[in-house]
């Protein structure tokens, strides 16, 4: 099945660790060398490989895959400091749009997914079908067809007793965990609203149309400039600020929202892509709670990434050094939990669970937070009040699964609120 074929899995919200026999149990799980495969060798993929190699003494980077050979060899060079832990000869260096499947078939035990998110559902499905443990970087999809595919893969992972670990990294930051645990425990009273920001510069250089080489097909050009196209990146609210969207979900204890109303647009000169560079989203929840997300990617402007969770007894802010302030502005709490590298904590817990024969399956939760980002994006693009129920009825599918490097492919135009139709 490809990711457009799904079996109607419900949009249940949930996450957790299930005690279940690991596929490694009975095979010397505590001693077996785990072979790691990296799919997507950019900055985040290389970072994930770094953390995976640091998380366990008996692991080896066994295979690598990317659509561009230069990206792969550059990543391999950056990882060479791990010495014998990196064993990726030329025959296990796979290049091209079909490289992911070759890597999965190369004998790896654990797959790290670090490609642009438009590929995530397809790659996750292939790895789970092959019985591999998977770390999947955020977000999990760029459309609702992809979200449904991720849910289906999560169900399949349960049957195959393999783990899915997510890349919503703030959920692994000890101080931020402390903050949200106290909020959920009611220490500061009921949550009444949230304002989260992700105000930043573009995370990658957005290439102008003049940078396109004459010999590049549409697909090759879009892959070189993937962050600027919705079918590969999902746009900045989903590709980058989904971290803040995810923390809104966290503040609300992963409850489903009612609806969203949003605005957004593009302030840059027309650059050949089809994404916005800023969004402002209001998520409506039960009991009159509204949660706002402000996102932008502007150069030379004020930057901040702050969660402000307003509760009945205090206003709580994080990350950084999470703190709570009473209505007079007096600090009444500050986290004393020791800070740790959240990316490393993610992989430490992932590999420790594999060694212990425990199955981590965060697939439903991953899909839910991705869908929350899609709700905000599509509310902005359409200019409509979009409900959670309407979102889950959508058959939107932006990312073709069968693209070839030489193909022609025309992206959708830049959305115009009031004219754009969400399907």
Average predicted local confidence, pLDDT: 92
Low-confidence stretches: 1-28
Going by CATH, the architecture of the largest domain would be 2-Layer Sandwich
**Rg result:** 21 Å
Q: What is the helix content?
A: 25-40%
SSE string, helices as H and strands as E: EEHEHEHEHEHEHEHHHHEEEEEEEHEHEH
Number of helices: 13
Largest sheet: 9 strands, mixed
Q: Quick one: how many beta strands?
A: 17
For the record, the CATH class of the largest domain is: Alpha Beta
Taken as a percent bin, the fraction of beta residues is 15-25%
Give the N-terminus to C-terminus distance in angstroms.
22 Å
Strand order of the largest sheet: 15-14-13-12-8-11-10-9-17
- Computed structural class: alpha/beta
Distinctive features:
423 residues, alpha/beta, Rossmann fold, Dihydrodipicolinate Reductase, domain 2, nine-stranded mixed β-sheet, six-stranded parallel β-sheet, 17 strands, globular
Layout of SSEs?
Layout: E1 17-18, E2 34-39, H1 43-55, E3 59-66, H2 69-78, E4 93-95, H3 99-104, E5 110-113, H4 120-129, E6 133-136, H5 144-160, E7 164-166, H6 174-184, E8 191-200, H7 218-224, H8 230-233, H9 236-239, H10 242-251, E9 259-265, E10 278-284, E11 290-297, E12 307-311, E13 315-318, E14 323-325, E15 331-334, H11 342-356, E16 359-360, H12 363-382, E17 386-387, H13 388-393
Parallel strand pairs: 2-3, 2-5, 3-4, 5-6, 6-7, 8-11
Antiparallel strand pairs: 1-16, 8-12, 9-10, 9-17, 10-11, 12-13, 13-14, 14-15
Helix pairs in contact: 1-11, 4-5, 5-12, 10-12
């Amino acid at each position: 099945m490809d990711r457009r074929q799904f079996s109607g899995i419900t949009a249940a919200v949930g996450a957790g660790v299930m005690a279940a026999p690991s596929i490694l149990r009975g095979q010397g799980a505590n001693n077996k060398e785990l072979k790691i495969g990296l799919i997507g060798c950019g900055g985040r993929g290389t970072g994930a490989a770094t953390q995976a190699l640091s998380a366990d003494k008996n692991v080896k980077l066994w295979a690598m895959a990317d659509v561009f050979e230069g990206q792969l060899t550059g990543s391999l060079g950056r990882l060479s400091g791990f010495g014998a832990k990196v064993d990726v000869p030329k025959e296990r260096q796979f290049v091209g749009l079909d490289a992911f499947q070759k890597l999965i078939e190369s004998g790896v035990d654990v797959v790290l997914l670090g490609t642009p998110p438009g590929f995530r559902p397809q790659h996750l499905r292939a790895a789970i079908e092959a019985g591999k443990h998977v770390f999947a970087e955020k977000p999990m999809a760029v459309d609702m067809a992809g979200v449904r595919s991720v849910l289906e893969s999560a169900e399949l992972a349960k049957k195959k007793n393999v783990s899915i670990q997510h890349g919503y990294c703030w959920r692994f930051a000890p101080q931020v965990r402390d903050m949200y645990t106290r909020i959920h425990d009611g220490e500061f009273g009921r949550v009444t609203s949230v304002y989260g920001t992700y105000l930043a510069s573009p995370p990658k250089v957005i290439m102008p149309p003049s940078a396109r080489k004459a010999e590049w097909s549409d697909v090759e050009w879009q892959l070189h400039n993937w962050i600027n196209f919705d079918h590969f990146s999902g746009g900045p609210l989903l590709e980058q600020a989904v971290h803040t969207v995810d923390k809104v979900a966290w503040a609300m204890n992963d409850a489903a929202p009612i609806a969203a109303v949003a605005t957004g647009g593009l302030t840059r000169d027309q650059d050949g892509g089809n994404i916005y560079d800023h969004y402002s989203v209001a998520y409506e929840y039960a009991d009159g709670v509204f949660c706002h997300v402000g996102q932008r990617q502007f150069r030379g402007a004020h930057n901040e990434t702050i969660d402000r969770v307003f509760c009945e007894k205090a206003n709580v802010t994080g990350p950084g050094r999470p703190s709570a302030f009473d209505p007079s502005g007096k600090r009444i709490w500050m986290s004393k939990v020791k800070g740790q590298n959240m990316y490393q904590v993610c992989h430490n817990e992932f590999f420790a669970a594999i060694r212990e024969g425990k199955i981590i399956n965060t697939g439903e939760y991953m899909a839910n937070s991705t869908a929350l980002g899609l709700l905000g994006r599509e509310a902005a693009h359409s200019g409509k009040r979009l409900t959670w129920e309407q979102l889950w009825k959508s058959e939107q599918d932006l990312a073709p699964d069968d693209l070839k490097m030489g193909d022609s492919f025309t992206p959708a135009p830049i959305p115009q609120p009031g004219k754009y139709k969400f399907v």
